[in-house]
Amino acid sequence: MKNIAITLAGVLFLLGSCSNPQENNNTSAIDQKVDSLLAIMTLEEKIGQLNLPSAGDVSTGISTNEGIAKQIKAGKVGGLFNINGLDKIRQVQKVAVEESRLGIPLIIAKDVIHGYKTTFPIPIGLSASWDMDLIQQSARIAAEEASADGIAWTFSPMTDISRDPRWGRVSEGSGEDPYLGGQIAAAMVRGYQGDDLSAENTLLACVKHFALYGASEAGRDYNTVDMGRLRMYNDYFPPYKAAVDAGVGTVMASFNEVDGVPATGNKWLMTDVLRKEWGFDGFVVSDYTGVSEMIAHGMGDLQVVSALALNAGVEMDMVSEGFLTTLKKSVDEGKVSEETIDNACRLILKAKYQLGLFDDPYKYMDEERAAKEIFSDENRAVARKIASESMVLLKNESKALPIKKEAKIALIGPLANNKENMVGTWSVSADIMKSVSIYDGIREVSANPDNIQYAKGSNLVEDADLEERISMFGKNTYRDDRPESEMIKEAVQVAKKSDIIVAILGEASESSGESSSLTDISIPDNQVRLLKALKATGKKVVVVLLSGRPLVLGEILPHSDAILNAWFPGSEAGLALADVLYGDVNPSGKLTMTYPQNVGQVPIYYSHKNTGRPLEGEWFQKFKTNYLDVSNEPQFPFGFGLSYSQFEYGEMKLSSADLNEDDKLKVTIPVKNASDFDGKEVVQLYMRDKVGTTTRPMKELKAFQKVLIEAGETKNIKFEITTEDLKFYTYDNLSDQNIIHTWETGEFEIMVGTNSSNLQSKTVNWSK
Ligand code: BGC
Questions:
Q1: What domains appear along the chain, each with residue ranges and CATH number?
Q2: By CB atoms within 10 Å of each CB, which of 208, 368, 511, 637 scores lowest?
Q3: Which of 63, 81, 155, 264 to mutate to test the pocket of ligand 1 (most atoms within 8 A of CB)?
Q4: Catalytic residue flag (residue 359)
Q5: Mapping DSSP to helix (H, G, I), strand (E, B) and coil, where does residue 223 land?
Q6: pTM of the prediction?
Q7: Which one, of 675, 640, 664, lies nearest residue 759 by Cα?
Q8: 155 within ligand 1 shell (Cβ under 6 A)
């Protein structure tokens, strides 16, 4: 047996050895190698490559795996995730390469979601920067750090469109808009994968969760999704497709069902849409126990659901071990063909070749680079910059912000002096105690640290059981057992001695994220009582929100002079926040999800369609589309965000009002910075297709530019629109429901402005 192993290892060495990265990327050369390898693999070994167990360092579900090393040796493991530390990773790779019959290297994965050790803002915060270069840079740094520390594959980007802030996972995505979501998905893929997957500092990316995971009913995680095809294609698919178009190497199936069949077993989704329509040529991995969860969905027993998933086009089984334990039987019984298994195995081996793992299985284990690059000063400086760019100024009355560096600040709030919660959800690699608390950050940037006085003021929520549920994964919130009145009294005393109050309110890091849905997204009552007491001192109150989702802010708006949404800013949280509060950085973030007035308005999003009875004019009107108790308006619209600058929009000019197929519409608008602060503005262009063969949204984001406009300067912002931008998915005829991507002639409204509710508009006619 030993001799065979040596011989096969020799074969593999020859198969694998191609030191030239260009050759490594040469598809046909890789295909040949994969085929030669497949030819010497047993059926069991092929099935083994489709198995992705969790090493159990971090658990997001119930893993039944034991004796990983034994399994690797037996050729039953294709990849491994949730394994931390170079030593451990090197050990398991060694077992795979030196002790399994064929010595096929493992692919080591991890959820590197918004940074590795250097942690960037949570993804919804990153998206609020509207800065594709910075977003790409964050993914690049994450890849550089993780790839030095043994990781080859990240389960990111998460591109699930969501219009329901009750869903905790909105924190992990880029908000409600398909166009913006697509731009961000592509930037993340470019950042992770770079130009060369075989480089030692790039990661294989994984777009997730395919598909429609963000549309779970009632915002309850993992819940049923039910959606018409046009909405899938027009609103929910674009970011996944953008990732595929950007060359993403892998796709993760979502937990939810899609049109009655769980995504993990949905052949239409995984094969017809993903591979045939979009041309995806990488491999698909299930989500955590996504295969075996189809038993609970009512799709059959483990053997049935495993065959269903594989036949649908899912190549790798994360954690369920359904492939490992049942596929051979299914082959024997003719329920799965060996060819299907070959094809699945081929895609996984191909990815391993593309990464260069056969050349050097230890290529991602670089102690020297890890020591130099991980959590380096340079990376942290970028994290600080990106965090400050992600913050959204929601209110700023009587110039409460920026604060003078000499001011005496009363810093109040349940997480105002907390490190653990700064990184936000899904930051499994972060050393949370290394993040900069708000207290430390503000003291460091202030003119005199002694001017910053702190009091906790309140707990996050009154309910101690709820607080326990939102302080998981070491994200301690240090619950205070004193009576509420005592905590408020202390805070008011501190406030009275200050020039200005900065109240840090909102959520805990783990109030959002996976399995963190809420029915009530307003600021907890005890925090509101604290805020009212602070406001009653007569001092100016700046509220800083920590949040992983849009919150309902009606209760706090009247009691605050300024509100800055800081999301969860990442490892440099306190410093980035101080940069914005003191005006070293002028806030430029804009919301990527609509903020509702109350939770009853959810789902709420800007790109809604018209009804047959739209409300035009004043709320309330009987027999029109509106509510009795609250207007249709959001609290804050999509695209909203203030600045310390004052931007004034001049008149929009169009190159023509009548266009033909090949024409380009040039849109120009002057934007003046009428203030003393240099500032960045996100100029947004929306369009409405006024008449269609199927109904069209009232407006859709089609382009945007984030531009620096210096104090007093006017910039002419230019956009170019072609018929490509007019395209949408519709039926070629209603009877056979064939979906086509096309544009239709007629009138289009062109809208430009500072957010989705504040736009000027002109109409053009486009003909063929
Ligand atoms: C999540 C995925 C994640 C996976 C692996 C699942 O529970 O839905 O987003 O990548 O776990 O940790």
A1: 107-369 (3.20.20.300), 375-591 (3.40.50.1700), 645-766 (2.60.40.10)
A2: 368
A3: 155
A4: no
A5: coil
A6: 0.96
A7: 640
A8: yes
